[in-house]
Amino acid sequence: MKSFNNRLASIRGAGTVKIVGVIAVAAILFAFPRFVESPYALHMMILFFLSTLMGSSWNIIGGYTGQYSVGHAAYFGTGAYTTMILLTFKDIPPWYGVWAGVAAAVVVALVIGTICFRLRGPYFVLASIAVAEIIRVTALNLTDLTKGAEGILLTDIPPFMIGDTILTDFSSKVPYYYISLVLALLMILVTWLVQNSKLGYYFQAIREDQDAAHSLGINLTIWKNAALVISAVFTSLAGSFYAIFVKFIDPTTVLPLDLSVQIVLISIIGGIGTIFGPVVGALVLVPLSEMLRSNIIAQGLINSGLVSAESATGIFLKEHLAHAHVLIYGILVVIVILFMPEGVLGFFRTIVARKRKGAA
Amino acid sequence: MAILEIRNVSKFFGGLAANSDVSFEVNEGMIMGLIGPNGAGKTTLFNCITGYYPPSKGEVVFDGKRMNGLQPDKVCKLGMARTWQKVRPLAKMTLLDNVMVGALCRTNSLKVAREMAMEQIGVVRLEHKAGFLAGGLPIGERKKLEVARVLATRPKLLLLDEVMGGLNPAESEDIIKLILDIKAQGKITQMVIEHDMKAIMRISDRIVVLNSGEKLAEGEPQEIVNNPEVVAAYLGTE
Amino acid sequence: MTFSVLLQSLVSGVLVGGVYALIGIGLTIIFGVMRVINFGHGDIMMVGMYMTYFLFTLAGVDPFVSILATMPLMFLFGAILQKIFINRILGSLPQNQILLTIGLGLIMSNSAMLAFTSDYKILTTSYSSSSFNLAGISISQPLLISFLITCFITAALYWFLMMTDTGQAIRATAQDREAAQLMGINVKWMSILSFGIGAAMAGTAGALISPTYYIFPQVGSAFTLKAFVITVLGGMGSIVGATIGGVIIGVVESVAAVAISSDWKDVVVFTIFLLVLLIKPSGLMGKSHM
After folding, report:
1. Structural domain includes residue A141
2. Nearest to C161 by CA among C33, C27, C66, C24
3. Domain limits at A119?
4. pLDDT, tens digit, for every residue of A201-244?
5. In this complex, which of B89, B110, B128 lies closest to A198 when CB atoms are compared?
6. Which residues in chain A have their CB less than 8 angstroms from residue B108's CB?
7. Burial class of A358 by CB neighbour count within 10 A (0 to 12, 13 to 18, 19+)
């Protein structure tokens, strides 16, 4: 009993260290734009926050509750389209439109949940894909509402005002930086709250064994839908943010199956069912995929003299590597599933634990 | 007074009757044994009682309430809890977390749930394993985990499905003591499926024998042992 | 919609459905033997399409003749995939199996993009757009040929699974892996064999549709989804079911395209899929493995 209490105390101790660490990192991130003005660096950070937000949102339903939705593009797209349609056709500013997007995503989540949660395992996965595809094709065909394949282009964003004070006019990347940072931190906080409440216990019980959970008084329909709604709300926020940030959406950018898969992979690669897994996943994936996209790797190979710029290989790499940035997702997920079933975070934790054991 | 009444319960799968026309009552505070050869329909009956599937015919009345059609979570909330023949630990959660999930059926506070859980972990004497992952525990401790977990849901009626299956004699003895302790406290009625005849004769106040889905006999342990039909069913003679 | 239009779309639906059936059969064999849902199935088909395309453009081999090369090569490809990757995750969580096959699919499609760019390629044969009239119904020549080849391959596969010892061993493995192992069946070899057969079927389907379909790296995912719909419709693991499911989906698509609009045909297909999952998850033919 005593040793158990000691262990609890040490867990709490580790918790304090963690909290201090998170606050310190958050402080640095808030100060970051004061010292770094490069729009490119800010852009990368925004992508990182956005990926963290998407991965952590999925983590609630997939990682904690064990319901592998491969249709999260549905919520992302719902948020993005609602905000964009309201803004471009009705002149409703995004900071109101976002909440309409959240409401719409909740409705979509409850419809999908009612349909799909009767199914388990691979059948649930297939159903979640099917529903998301139905939504994508619908968005493609409802051209009056969504402009179909042409997509919606945003020309200007009204300044963000409270009363008569203009908070920002969105002329630089800085406001986007702060919005995405706050959203990502909020999502991490929500994950922490979930993990440390009845929700977290019930979600994980459902993940581990639905029948056992059911027999312990857990209403599967209610709790699975609760997890999905939380997940959908933040995925929708991510979608709305993306729409305003990129200023262009169409069904192939905000509703495709590929996007759903990428959302899942952020969490899987980092480590599911943990608060910081998706953060690690985003930290791994965003730079890697950006390096491929921006041709840094091809340029690096050429600069290092390994590949001559004029050679066929050099030209080929420069031309094509950028189009294949999703390749890295494929390779990473195969490596993770085969060699690091607990994700990158879990992998390093085991290594550290092993080293400690060796040292002791 | 009867806490559980099984009235003419039948369960068909396709054309096959897994239970047909089973009736009996379980009185408050007693231990009811449920025995029968493999495939006699014992676990099916448990599933019908606890809401995993609705009975095809007949009704289950618990604490004066008709239970037919209620989902397992409702059944648990009303005070009827079951363990599983094949243990179902929540593998990637600790023993303490497992039992807390049970306790959270009665409270929304993690703090209260933790206290309730530690109390039940004490009952099964696994305090030293509270922080271990459930998936890594040996079978005997996983069985005890299940008992602690259902006790934490504060049941009035406990249904134990082969809770001694696969255990060595010493471990079985622990469980038997546990069952008798629970009875001695007088708050929880128990219904036990068991294959170990010696154990079931020792703990049960009454026994129901199922054979091919039908109730073959009911009575006190001594009557059951001496019932020629029961003996025949077990030895497989016609 | 006149009767002849309906008849026309029924006929072309059945013809296309034959090829769909081939894709579905591949998926269902893999699922039957290994309980793995192959999310890279359409991408394997895409590999078959490119193989056919290059055999045609570089060596001048007719797409329908090239099957003789495509089929064994794709079998080998599948067998290697199984040996190196799938084999390691047979016992793990279904989610992880799904993710691994998704990853393999991404690698295939993105490698294809890297190698061949994302341009659409068209394989034009002398008969690509030729058709003939039968009682007022026009029948596309390449579709008819591919349908006949599909029938032949499906029949040969039935014969193999029903009549040969190896086929029986595969079916035994699908029925009960452990029992099959106890009976002395080399279960690992059966898994390799069935993934090979599955890949060969998908690759052949790719070859068969290449004269009538655009060839591009991302073509796979649409067919993966279609293959799921077909196998779930027919009952996961059932070959007869997949054959019937393929024809049904072919007909539904082509009738929906005429009756509603071709823009909405996927919505119709997916809605049917969801309804089947919810109402009869075991499919129209098979036993449920849920």
Report:
1. yes
2. C33
3. 39-273
4. 999 999 999 999 999 999 999 999 999 999 999 999 999 999 99
5. B110
6. 198
7. exposed
What are the chain C neighbours of A268 within 8 Å (beta carbons)?
Answer: 99
Any idea where the domains of chain B sit in the sequence? 1-79+157-163+188-238, 83-154
pLDDT tens-digit readout, B26-49: 999 999 999 988 888 888 999 999
What are B9's strand-pairing partners? B22
* H, E, C per residue of chain A: CHHHHHHHHHHHHHHHHHHHHHHHHHHHHHHHHHHCCCHHHHHHHHHHHHHHHHHHHHHHHHHHCCCCCCCCHHHHHHHHHHHHHHHHHHCCCHHHHHHHHHHHHHHHHHHHHHHHCCCCHHHHHHHHHHHHHHHHHHHHHCHHHHCHHHCEECCCCCCEEECCEEEECCCCCHHHHHHHHHHHHHHHHHHHHHHCCHHHHHHHHHHHCHHHHHHCCCCHHHHHHHHHHHHHHHHHHHHHHHHHHHCEECHHHHCCHHHHHHHHHHHHHHCCCCCCHHHHHHHHHHHHHHHHHCCHHHHHHHHCCCCCCCCHHHHHHHHHHHHHCCHHHHHHHHHHHHHCCCHHHHHHHHHHHHHHHHHC
**Residue among C117, C221, C267 minimizing CB distance to A134:** C267
pLDDT number for residue A13: 59
pLDDT tens for each residue of B127-155: 999 999 999 999 989 999 999 999 999 99
B73–A212 C-beta distance less than 8 A: no
Taking 50 as the threshold, does the pLDDT of residue B238 lie above it?
no
Distance from CA of C89 to the nearest CA of A (A): 7
Phi, psi of B2 (to 5 degrees): -80, 125
Q: Which of A8, A196, A202 sits opposite B104 (nearest CB)?
A: A202
Q: Would you state the pLDDT for residue A5?
A: 56
CA dihedral A335, A340, A342, A345 (to 10 degrees): -90
Lowest mean pLDDT across A157-161, B15-19, B227-231, C92-96: A157-161
- Cα distance from N-terminal residue to C-terminal residue, chain C: 40
B52 in contact with chain A, both atoms CB, cutoff 8 A: yes
Chain A residues in contact with B125 (beta carbon < 8 A): none
CB B81 within 8 A of CB B187: no
A354 CA: distance to closest CA in chain C (Å): 23
Instruction: Look up residue A128 and give its two tokens.
Output: 């979640």
| Closest-approach residue (CA) in chain A for C290 | A120
Number of domains forming the structure of chain A: 1
Q: What letter does residue C118 receive in the DSSP assignment?
A: S
Query: Residue A330 domain-assigned?
Result: no
| CATH code reported for the domain at C3-279 | 1.10.3470
Encoding tokens for residue A198? 């009845």
A115 vs C263, C278, C281: nearest CB: C278
Judged by CB atoms closer than 8 Å, whether chains meet at C118 and A131 is answered as no
Residue A354 located in a structural domain: no
Best mutation target, C106, C216, C228, C249, to test chain A (most A CBs within 10 A): C106
Which residue among A208, A213, A217 sits closest to B77, beta carbon to beta carbon?
A: A217
* Neighboring chain B residues of A273 at a CB cutoff of 8 Å: 92
Series of mean pLDDT values for 10-residue runs along chain A (360 residues): 53 72 89 86 93 96 93 96 92 89 96 88 87 93 87 82 72 88 95 94 95 93 96 97 93 90 90 91 88 74 72 72 76 88 83 76
Shortest distance between the Cα of B126 and any Cα of chain A, in A, equals: 10
The CATH architecture annotation of domain B1-79+157-163+188-238 reads: 3-Layer(aba) Sandwich (3.40)
Question: Is residue A325 situated within a structural domain?
Answer: no
Low-confidence ranges of chain C (pLDDT < 50): 287-290
Distance CA A272, CA A341 (A): 10
